[in-house]
Amino acid sequence: xxxxxxxxxxxxxxxxxxxxxxxxxxxxxxxxxxxxxxxDVVGALPRYLASLGHxxxxxxxxxxxxxxxxxxxxxxxxxxxxxxxxxLWGGILEGQLPGSTVPVYFIEHEGFFGRAxxxxxxxxxxxDNDLRFxxxxxxxxELCRILDFAPDIIHVHDWHTAIIPLLLNSSYRYDPWVxxxxxxxxxxxxxxxxxxxxxxMNVLGVGWQHFNPAELEAFDRxxxxxxxxxxxxxxxxxSEGYAREIQTATYGYGLEGQVQRRxxxxxxxxxxxDYEEWNPETxxxxxxxxTADNLQxxxxxxxxxxxxxxxxxxxxxxxxxxxxxxxxxxxxxILAAALHRLLTLDLQFVLxxxxxxxxxxxxxxxxxxxxxxxxxxIGYDNALAHQIEAGSDFFVMPSRFEPCGLxxxxxxxxxxxxxxxxxxxxxxxxxxxxxxxxxxxGFKFYDLTPEALFDTIGWATHTYSHNxxxxxSLIRNxxxxxxxxxxxxxxxVELYQEAIRRRRGV
Length: 506
Known about the structure:
Layout: H1 13-16, E1 21-25, H2 37-51, E2 55-61, E3 72-73, E4 78-81, E5 87-96, E6 103-108, H3 110-113, E7 120-121, E8 124-125, H4 129-147, E9 153-157, H5 164-169, E10 182-187, E11 195-197, H6 201-204, E12 217-218, E13 221-223, H7 224-231, E14 234-237, H8 240-245, H9 249-252, H10 256-261, E15 266-268, H11 296-308, E16 319-323, H12 332-342, E17 348-353, H13 357-369, E18 374-378, H14 382-391, E19 394-397, H15 407-413, E20 418-421, H16 424-429, E21 443-445, H17 450-466, H18 468-479, H19 485-504
Parallel strand pairs: 1-2, 1-9, 2-6, 9-10, 10-14, 14-15, 16-17, 16-19, 17-18, 19-20, 20-21
Antiparallel strand pairs: 3-5, 4-5, 5-6, 7-8, 11-13, 12-13
């Protein structure tokens, strides 16, 4: 569901045009710290909200990877009530989102955030993640007192800050700075819910009456995402498709009933793309730039990509690209099962990513067995990611689920038709190719099977070799698409306004 424009009563118009005070609390934000799409959203959305005239502040941890020498140390000391642990103290560092005047407040606590990684070490989650992000959530609210900032709405993200809506409805209900704040909980990945031993209730300090199946309790443990979903004024996900999917057992991961109960309060808003960074006409990482009207530079990018991966320069065969975390969610096991058969086709394939250890060995072995067709780079390289988007003929995303996805949007802009499984944001943002009408922007498959992936890549390969007019239409259609943060920010403002209206009973 999406809020429609002009859907409010006339008496709401004055309220709708007012300058909102918005606090965004999250565990990551690009470029400071990022492990996924959550970081992209929190790094981009505030800038566009500010450009619409709103007062936006961001709060997140100061992880070790964030250089404190580039930040301003505020003089205040932050006292955070942590229930049975007593009051814990933290520092506050201040910076700005690049390219904006949006302030970012970094909560500093050596014991909780002075670590090399955000959430895990050696593949295992930190044992005290419950305390770390409870501290962040409560610190976000206490920060408002220090800043003398009373937000109209607090936008929280995933389980890490999902407890904030419950805090607003309980121990902070009469707080002079945040007691009247509405809340929006954005769910970026339903698979991760923040499940912890029930002893956490003594630290949350919201009262054991909230440890029940309608709120925090799940299988005799605390589920922070579940509690947030029960108490947030409104809920959102990063695509309309994912908003529908998480109401099913397949994608709800045990919380589908909770989502169904709040279905009327759930909205899907597709993420935007930073087209200043992802633009083949100006991209500094490319050997040659190009436009939809002149694709000569794209051919040069393909040759450069083949050179970088030590593949034979063969313009006559399609080159498929994949940039991804190599984990089950991304469907890399489906690709692995189809790959030997795919390499019987006359094609080339390049892969960039890291993840589950077996993928490193498997794809590395395939590269050694088929050096003229398949090449991989384990790790992540931002410049190379741009070069794969530009140099590939098709981009492959066989995800099990994809709340939004950004690479398919990058691919469209770069004239690289995406091959996607029709799920979540992939289904929302890619239109299947219609050979008769020359419409569409990419190729979709629906069954999560190696056979379906093989057939769809085979379809793209045939199109490349035998339907050049159709391929040209696909490229042209895709490059004309725009998924802007300006549009997404406007829709978030509508959602904020509706949440504030409900909170205040306007």
